[in-house]
Design a protein that fits this description.
- The protein is built from 14 helices and 16 strands.
- It has helices spanning 34-38, 47-55, 58-61, 91-101, 114-124, 137-148, 164-172, 189-198, 217-221, 281-288, 298-309, 311-334, 356-365, 396-412; strands at residues 3-8, 11-17, 26-29, 78-79, 131-134, 154-159, 175-180, 199-205, 229-233, 257-262, 275-278, 338-339, 346-350, 368-369, 371-376, 385-392.
- Helix 4 runs antiparallel to helix 11 (298-309), helix 5 runs parallel beside helix 11 (298-309) and helix 6 packs parallel to helix 7 (164-172).
């Protein structure tokens, strides 16, 4: 047995043999676990797993964790599944990181990121007290949940969209509410009005993921909750034909809007982890209260400053990606896919056959990774499941390779266009 009951100092304890956790190499559990462990059959399931899950907060124990896209560790893949930028960052950014690495790493970084906030504020024509840097824009999302959402409060978001929103709501103990989009990815305001009006946070990726569509300012302003905050997740904003520059924050009705930005996508810095929020100073001050003291390290801040100073390098990479995006959308259409017009660095496509899993697996066998995504619980979708393929825009060489492999997969599955 992996678990057995022993008597120690007059108290029944459960010993999980073979799990090093003390001087005798055993885990010691309270007596209330005796019955549970004794009932377990001999197997490779350790009774400590049940204990550890029971120690978690109930909403965490029930939580299905967010699963990032696959990251193969060996070379030779065409990797178009996680919306990374296929081009390297500005050489000035690399030089700044190297210089920071030779600097005083034994000292903490600037806790308020003074230089970074000043430059970001200039780029977006706001004051420095409107800016809050973070360890990726995902940390800004976490800070928003910490600062604004109490257990049981409603958190609303479009569906399908970024699935991390639901995970963060459940971690916080909030009540996630899916605002199901129409088949053309537009809003059904009549159906979702009650959820928006009750929400503490409404989170909207704009452009949306996985679809890549961008919503109008009027649509977004209609989603500001009367007693809450609208979060516009602009991780892909620099890839829009008319890039975002926080213009919406200058509208008088936008006092309760927070914009989150990322350096992972357009600035080619997914490996650094840096993002920032833009909002009214009162909202930023509230978020500052719940952040880690030194949430952005010296290397990340140096990279961010250099990236903001060499803004033109980012714009050139974004221009190249937009051109490649158009080619990819046209090629997918020629292969028989339906493609949503995208304003991001990826495209969402569906095949009339619905054989998205088979297409994904066929590409993967050929060492090509795309994202096969499924969104259950959508009444207007066949079988209640909205699904398709999200394909990141890579280099032109990678996209030509994808197209060639995709033709072979479609032919193999007898799905080639007539």
């Amino acid at each position: 047995m992996l678990g057995e009951v022993r008597q120690r100092r007059g108290v029944n304890q459960i010993i999980c043999v073979g799990r090093a956790q003390g001087p005798d190499g055993a885990l010691v559990f309270p007596t209330r676990w005796e019955e549970r462990c004794a009932a377990l059959p001999e197997s490779n399931v350790c009774p400590c797993r049940t204990l550890l899950m029971d120690l978690l907060r109930p909403n965490i124990a029930r939580l299905a964790p967010y699963v990032p896209g696959e990251q193969p560790q060996e070379p030779g893949w065409i990797k178009l599944n996680t919306n990374e930028n296929p081009y390297p960052p500005s050489p000035r950014v690399v030089e700044a990181i190297a210089a920071a690495a030779r600097g005083p790493l034994q000292l903490y970084p600037d806790p308020v990121a003074t230089q970074f906030r000043k430059l970001a504020a200039e780029r977006f024509q706001v004051g420095a007290d409107w800016i809050l840097p973070a360890n990726g824009s995902d940390e800004n999302l976490t800070l928003l949940f910490r600062a604004f959402v109490d257990p049981g409060e409603i958190v609303a978001f479009p569906y399908p969209s970024y699935i991390l929103y639901e995970t963060l709501a459940l971690i916080q103990g909030g009540c996630p509410q899916r605002l199901t989009l129409r088949p053309d990815w537009s809003w059904d305001f009549a159906a979702t009005r009650a959820q928006v009006e009750q929400a503490k946070l409404v989170l909207v990726p704009n452009p949306n993921s996985p679809s890549g569509n961008r919503w109008s300012d009027d649509d977004l302003l209609a989603l500001v909750p009367p007693r809450g905050v609208l979060v516009l997740d602009e991780a892909y904003g620099d890839f829009a034909d008319t890039p975002h520059r926080a213009e919406l924050l200058r509208r008088p009705e936008a006092a309760r809007i927070v914009i989150t930005r990322s350096f992972s996508k357009s600035f080619s810095l997914a490996g650094i982890r840096l993002g920032f929020a833009i909002a009214q100073p009162e909202l930023i001050a509230g978020m500052q209260k719940v952040k880690d003291s030194y949430n952005c390290d010296r290397l990340a801040l140096a990279a961010g400053v250099a990236a903001l100073e060499d803004w033109g390098a980012m714009e050139e990479n974004s221009r190249r990606i937009r051109a490649s995006r158009e080619w990819l959308a046209g090629e997918l259409a020629r292969l028989g896919f339906e493609v949503v017009p995208s304003q991001a660095n990826f495209v969402w496509c569906t095949h009339p056959s619905g054989e998205h899993q088979a297409i994904y697996e066929g590409l993967k066998r050929r060492r090509v990774l795309v994202r096969w995504m499924r969104f259950p619980g959508v009444a207007h979708a066949p079988g209640g499941l909205w699904h398709g393929l999200r394909i990141s825009v890579g280099t032109d060489e990678e996209l030509r390779g994808l197209a060639g492999h995709l033709r072979d997969v479609l032919k193999e599955l007898s799905l080639s266009p007539a």
